[in-house]
Amino acid sequence: MRLHWHRRDLRVADNAGLAAAAEGGPVVPVFVFDRGVLAHAGPPRVAFMLDALDSLRERYREHGSDLLVRRGDPREVLPDLAAEFGADAVTWGKEVSGLGRERDAAVRRALDDADVARRSVQDALLHDPGSIRTNQGEVYSVFTYFWKKWRDRPKEDPVAPLTSDDLADVADDEPLPSLGDLGFEEPEATVPPAGTSAARELLAAFCADDIYDYDDRRDYPADECTSRLSAHLKFGTIGIREVYDAVAEAKSAVAGTDYDAAEEFESQLAWREFYSHVLWDRPNVVTENFKDYERPIEWNRDPDALQAWKDGETGYPIVDAGMRQLRAEAFVHNRVRMIAASFLTKDLLVDWREGYDWYREKLVDHDTANDVGGWQWAASTGTDAQPYFRVFNPMTQGERYDPSGEYIREHVPELRDIPADAIHEWDELDRGLREMLAPDYPAPIVDHSERRERAIEMFERARGDG
Ligand SMILES: Cc1cc2nc3c(=O)[nH]c(=O)nc-3n(C[C@H](O)[C@H](O)[C@H](O)COP(=O)(O)OP(=O)(O)OC[C@H]3O[C@@H](n4cnc5c(N)ncnc54)[C@H](O)[C@@H]3O)c2cc1C
Questions:
Q1: Contact assessment for residue 285 and residue 237, using Cβ atoms and an 8 Å cutoff
Q2: Are residues 317 and 444 in the same domain?
Q3: Which residue numbers belong to the known binding site for FAD?
Q4: Which of 174, 280, 318, 336 is within CB 3.0–4.6 Å of 398 for a Cys-Cys bond?
Q5: Do the domain assignments include residue 190?
Q6: Closest Cα to residue 89, out of 67, 61, 65, 108?
Q7: Do 210 and 115 share a domain, yes or no?
Q8: CA distances from 219 to 216, 373, 443 (A)
Q9: Could you tell me the CATH number of the domain that includes residue 38?
Q10: Nearest CA residue ID for atom 23, ligand 1
Q11: Mutate to test the pocket of ligand 1, among 209, 218, 230, 243 (most ligand atoms within 8 A of CB)
Q12: Considering only CA atoms, which of 12, 24, 7, 163 is closest in space to residue 86?
């Protein structure tokens, strides 16, 4: 008998850790609500996770087994459960973040003390973190080179499905805790359905259609042509091998531009692995700039501006639409995440860590590696970042990627009745006209051109050039 400890692999199908456990006899599946981990969570993610756990339990019950759910410290819970069920080993999926790895090391020590074998298995990524390196053995800091190696390496097939014989005949009658039981408020946002069926529906719909337009349309938030798989990949409600397999099949059916579009999607899966590689090698990127500077960056402490950004009240329509989408859906389109992150760091000159904390609290798909990677990219402090002197203009970005204003109008109702031209010239309209067109929508809280200059000077001073 073995225990499988579910964490970011809330599924039965295509689960490498679970399959490894089943090699040693019937498996007892376990999930532990760990206060130390919950301290870093936000309501949308906990709501999504509870829904995913509910589906996972259902799957196990269909197989005549159950998911044992416990609350407490895994260092105590797992050795106790191993003793209770006579399990001689525990398996789990490998963690990438520094905190996760520290926790796993502590659990390993506790299991060693209890004389229970343990094995952590690479499951969440197609390639082991740290396995794709430069010829000098360094972690890649430029995605393009990483991508070529990642693309050309063979990938594993999805893991064969388990049968009821692989699972222990156990039962857990305790209901799952509620959000309130775990100390969380109801999320402000509407959280999408979790579970493997929901993930598979998204994947199938995406691979049947949008994938072939992905490279042309993925940057246009109103088009909604991306997969929306991010929360599922974060919580492992679908296996990455299964996703890759479906994409490879969609790719193999076509040629030319359709093929290129599917490959562009694959490259986004590779970005996810790139950032995991970086976090694996440099756990401190969560709190420290990836790049070195001569002097500390003199970020602006401006609580009012930070609050206006969080509330979607900056007077820059595309930024506000993104920040309001975040509150309403616990999700933001990738292009708009970049624009909003650039605005916080390069227009408001606020430290990227403040923005990271807000996304961490609000995003249903918050993933340490991707979130910190995205923030450091936008702030120009990270890997393969945009150079500090290239500052997104939030007005021209809005005009280019939401030309009809459809996305902006959806999220900023004050602008619903005004023409797209006026939305995209909001910063240039005179005060009287602004008040006439949309009296409840704010004027821009900063002057972009002036802030752009200040941002460049701020970085030049930090680099020692100023
Ligand atoms: C400031 C900032 C913060 C971000 N925070 C997160 C985060 O917390 N969690 C997260 O999963 N993504 C994050 N991203 C990346 C990206 O915005 C989301 O993965 C994407 O918008 C999710 O939508 P989707 O599933 O429809 O993506 P799709 O376009 O369908 O892409 C498929 C999958 O590829 C991965 N992916 C796509 N783009 C990226 C990227 N740029 N970096 C890393 N992985 C990517 C995701 O797993 C995504 O689900 C962030 C980007 C920025 C600029």
A1: no
A2: yes
A3: 214, 226-230, 265, 268-275, 365-367
A4: 318
A5: no
A6: 108
A7: no
A8: 7, 18, 26
A9: 3.40.50.620
A10: 228
A11: 230
A12: 24
For the chain, what is the domain count? 3
Same structural domain for residues 309 and 457?
yes
Residue nearest atom 20 of ligand 1, based on CA coordinates: 334
d(CA 155, CA 14): 14
Instruction: Identify the domain containing residue 451 by its residue range.
Output: 303-463
176-232, pLDDT tens digit by residue? 999 999 999 999 999 999 999 999 999 999 999 999 999 999 999 999 999 999 999
344 belongs to a structural domain: yes
Ligand 1 neighbours (beta carbon < 6 A): 218, 226-230, 233-234, 268-269, 271-272, 275, 334, 337-338, 341, 359, 363, 365-367, 370-371, 373-375, 378
Orientation of helix 334-342 relative to helix 368-378, angle to 10°:
50
The full DSSP string for 416-443 is TTS-HHHHHTTTTS-HHHHHHH-TTSPP
Phi, psi angles (nearest 5°) of residue 177 = -65, 160
CA dihedral 410, 412, 417, 422 (to 10 degrees): -110
Are residues 8 and 117 located together in one domain of the fold? Answer: yes
Residue 466 has pLDDT above 70, yes or no: no
**For ligand 1, atom 39, which residue shows the shortest CA distance?**
268
Sheet with 27-33: strands ordered across: 68-71, 27-33, 2-6, 89-93, 117-121
pLDDT range class, residue 384, cuts 50, 70, 90: confident
Task: Give the position of tokens 């893991």.
Answer: 159
